[in-house]
Design goal:
Blueprint (H helix, E strand, L loop, with lengths): L3 E3 L1 H10 L2 E5 L3 H6 L1 E2 L3 E2 L15 E5 L4 H12 L3 E5 L10 E2 L1
Length: 98
């Protein structure tokens, strides 16, 4: 399985038009400080202990896109349909809930 990289703008568009699950893979402290509206926090180091619905579509993000890329790869290997927000959310405060 593979995953696709998408822009933050594309991720937000998908959230408005499709049933997707948005996952913030950063540490809880960063999530509590700011996150995208509707996101659930599953830190990267907890992903392997999480069961995912194979029929669902997921979008994962972090600060800069690197950790979420690893998460997307791992989830894709497990059979998930997943997208990675390339570049993360750092510097995109207009989209972030504080």
């Amino acid at each position: 399985m593979r995953f696709d990289n998408i822009t933050l703008e594309r991720a937000l568009w998908m959230m408005e038009h499709y049933p997707v699950i948005l996952i913030d893979v950063r540490e809880p402290e960063k999530y509590q400080k700011s996150h995208l509206k509707g996101a659930v926090n599953i830190p990267y180091d907890k992903l392997s202990n999480t069961s995912f619905q194979k029929e669902a579509t997921y979008i994962v993000y972090c600060d800069n896109g690197m950790q979420s890329m690893r998460a997307a790869r791992d989830m894709a290997i497990e059979g998930c349909h997943v997208y990675n927000v390339i570049g993360g959310i750092k510097g995109n405060d207009k989209y972030v809930d504080m």
